[in-house]
């Protein structure tokens, strides 16, 4: 699914618009009026300290955490009150932290289940093209594969669902650097196809390098939004994760070395 190019000098139309969104868990408010726009074909990095509300925002956009206020639009459509399944049907795909694959099923069975019912016939070939290693392992039980291979399988859902807006939560979490390269190449390929990506990522530098814009979250609100060049990561680290850490380490590792100043 490729987004139509915007006329020259005109920004692409919004694929996802979040306005004044509030949400939380069991009466505890986490999101406190979030505003965010992801335009068609754009990659947006969502950054902020542990507990800032990034995962909750992705859940609220996907519908797995209900909004208590504000609105969520996919394109022109208000989806705020729609079920997660209906949002998926309208082109939204969440790749949650922790992979979300069927560990007892084979690679091929997972890929067939990853293809939503409105896309028929189910055809895993696009996933095998993106990740040839999965083709070699199509009959392997998913739970017996390495973490990186399982993450390729999880990411395949974004490919096979043909979603126009993909939400990605820490997809490189716990993976070896070489595998992280493969995962980021897959994200770049999704973006090149014109999908809109909203990325929460522990490798902040890498996410910023491929992003068209960055949104910084703090305590359930977006405190900064703009081109990645407007957000100096040194400042990000200093403000949110403490001083004296190396920016080429994953944020989670750095957070382990210094108290998070929330
Ligand atoms: N299932 C849940 N039930 C209750 N509270 C939750 C739940 N999930 C998250 N929270 C709380 O919501 C707040 C925001 O958490 P969230 O996971 O959205 O932040 P985050 O920015 O993604 O941080 P992290 O990088 O640590 O995942 C935290 O205070 C957290 O404890």
Textual characterization of the structure:
Belongs to the ABC transporter superfamily. It holds the Pfam family ABC_tran. The structure is a single chain. The protein is an alpha/beta fold and 262 residues long. The protein has two domains: 14-91 and 163-242, Rossmann fold (3-Layer(aba) Sandwich), CATH 3.40.50; 100-162, no CATH class. It has helices at residues 54-62, 84-89, 107-114, 125-130, 132-136, 147-160, 177-192, 204-210, 233-241, 251-257; strands at 14-25, 28-39, 43-47, 67-74, 77-78, 92-95, 165-169, 196-200, 213-218, 221-226. A six-stranded mixed sheet has the order 6-7-8-3-9-10, sandwiched between helices. The longest helix is centred in the C-terminal third of the chain and has 16 residues, at 177-192. Adenosine-5'-triphosphate binds next to α1.
Proper CATH architecture of the largest domain: 3-Layer(aba) Sandwich
List bound small molecules.
adenosine-5'-triphosphate
Biggest sheet character: 6 strands, mixed
Give unreliable regions as ranges.
Answer: 242-249, 251-262
| Separate helix tally | 10
**Count of strand segments:** 10
- Which percent bin holds the helix content? 25-40%
CATH fold node name of the largest domain: Rossmann fold
CATH superfamily of the largest domain: P-loop containing nucleotide triphosphate hydrolases
Taken from the alpha-carbon principal axes, the silhouette is globular
What string, H for helix and E for strand, traces the elements in order?
EEEHEEHEHHHHEHEHEEHH
Q: What is the CATH domain class of the largest domain?
A: Alpha Beta
Structural class: alpha/beta
Domain ABC transporter: 16-244
GO molecular function: ATP binding; ATP hydrolysis activity; branched-chain amino acid transmembrane transporter activity
Organism: Parafrankia irregularis
Keywords: Amino-acid transport, ATP-binding, Nucleotide-binding, Transport
């Amino acid at each position: 699914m490729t987004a139509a190019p915007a006329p020259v000098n005109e920004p692409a139309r919004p694929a996802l618009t979040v306005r004044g969104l509030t949400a939380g868990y069991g009466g505890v408010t986490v999101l406190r009026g979030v505003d965010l726009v992801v335009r068609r074909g754009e990659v947006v990095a969502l950054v902020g300290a542990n507990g800032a509300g990034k995962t909750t925002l992705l859940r609220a956009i996907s519908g797995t955490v209900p909004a208590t206020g504000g609105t969520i639009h996919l394109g022109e459509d208000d989806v705020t009150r729609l079920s997660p399944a209906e949002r998926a049907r309208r082109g939204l795909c969440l790749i949650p932290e922790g992979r979300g694959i069927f560990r007892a099923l084979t690679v091929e069975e997972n890929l067939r289940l990853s293809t939503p019912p409105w896309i028929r016939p189910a055809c895993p070939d696009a996933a095998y093209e993106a990740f040839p290693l999965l083709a070699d392992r199509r009959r392997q039980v998913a739970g017996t594969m390495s973490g990186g291979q399982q993450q390729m399988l999880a990411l395949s859902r974004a490919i096979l669902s043909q979603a126009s807006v993909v939400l990605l939560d820490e997809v490189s979490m716990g993976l070896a650097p070489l595998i992280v390269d493969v995962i980021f190449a897959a994200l770049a390929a999704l973006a090149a196809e014109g999908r809109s990506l909203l990325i929460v990522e522990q490798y902040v530098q890498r996410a910023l390098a491929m992003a068209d814009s960055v949104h910084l979250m703090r305590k359930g609100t977006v405190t900064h939004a703009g081109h990645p060049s407007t957000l100096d990561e040194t400042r990000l680290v200093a403000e949110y994760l403490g001083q004296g850490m190396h920016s080429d380490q994953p944020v989670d590792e750095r957070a382990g070395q210094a108290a998070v100043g929330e």
